[in-house]
Design goal:
Elements lengths: L2 E10 L6 E11 L4 E5 L6 H8 L7 E6 L2 E2 L5 H11 E4 L11 H6 L11 H7 L15 H13 L5 E5 L7 H18 L2 E5 L11 E6 L2 E7 L8
Parallel strand pairs: 3-8, 3-9, 6-7, 7-8
Antiparallel strand pairs: 1-2, 1-4, 4-5, 9-10
Helix pairs in contact: 5-6
Bound molecules: adenosine-5'-diphosphate (ADP) (2 copies).
The site of one adenosine-5'-diphosphate has 10 residues, from α1.
Length: 228
């Protein structure tokens, strides 16, 4: 899916305590691109990601997903939008502790009319020999692989990742980024990643830098071409 954000404005707080945290964001992400959002803490990255993901409301502006405006939908429409189009990955994996790897992924399968083949997905994630283990038997990196599988199983048009390597060491972070690159090539999902991890610049098709609620830099990495 492709995405276009126009003059997006977001405030937090009320009346005299009102703070403008997104100050007119314009940006676009093409179908199949990996886009990375960089910028200091507090610059508005998570807020932007959450608004694109339909889990926070915007105050002004428009968001088009495959040409359809989603910024002014009611909560029922938004919930359908999320269910049909989005996968979320967070810093902390939020797996269900008493379900196995395979079961954690299966619980999201029913949400889709066209889910991915679970066994093939688990192999792609590199979790085949761990598929019957529970989250507390897995390393952080393995848990994040499972969380990525859960987000991907319904084959969403857009995958949103908020600090997916934030709790992992350098080597494991690299593996997770490589996995994201691999699934992007295999499933062609449009992927947006909020991160502090500079290593990601080498695999992102598009890099956007936020500062104080504004996009201060936006460029494409010409060396890599999106899957389609
Ligand atoms: P980043 O992801 O770049 O660290 P955030 O989007 O989390 O930035 O936050 C942007 C600004 O909005 C910060 O100043 C933060 O404190 C503020 N903020 C974020 N969420 C809320 C909220 N729910 N209520 C009030 N202020 C918030
Ligand atoms: P991140 O590093 O991912 O940006 P934050 O620590 O900024 O995470 O925010 C974590 C959560 O807390 C987010 O859901 C954000 O909306 C909320 N939040 C951030 N700042 C504030 C704030 N000043 N008041 C209320 N909620 C906030």
């Amino acid at each position: 899916m492709y995405l276009e954000v126009r003059n997006l404005v977001k405030y937090y707080g009320e009346e005299e305590n009102k703070v403008k945290v997104l100050k007119g964001i314009d940006c676009s992400v093409e179908k199949g691109q990996i886009c990375v959002l960089l910028g200091p803490s507090g610059s508005g990255k998570s807020t932007l990601l959450n608004i694109i993901g339909g889990i926070e409301e915007l105050d002004e502006g428009e968001i088009f997903v495959d040409g359809k405006e989603i910024g002014h939908m009611n909560s029922k429409e938004l919930s359908l939008y999320r269910r049909n189009n989005l996968g979320f990955v967070f810093q902390f994996y939020n797996l269900v502790p008493n379900l196995s790897v395979k079961e954690n992924i299966e619980v999201c399968e029913y949400l889709s009319k066209a889910p991915l083949d679970i066994d093939d997905l688990i192999k792609t994630l590199g979790l085949w020999e761990h598929k019957d283990k529970f989250p507390n038997q897995l390393s952080g990196g393995q848990q994040q692989r499972c969380a990525i599988g859960r987000a991907l199983v319904k084959n969403p048009g857009i995958l949103l990742c908020d600090e997916p390597t934030g709790a992992l060491d350098y080597a494991t972070s690299k593996e997770i980024l490589e996995l994201i690159e691999k699934v992007n090539k295999k499933y062609n999902n449009t992927i947006i990643i909020v991160t502090h991890n500079d290593a990601i610049k080498n695999m992102a098709h598009k890099i956007m830098k936020l500062h104080d609620g504004k996009v201060i830099k936006e460029y494409e990495n010409k060396n890599i071409v999106p899957a389609k």
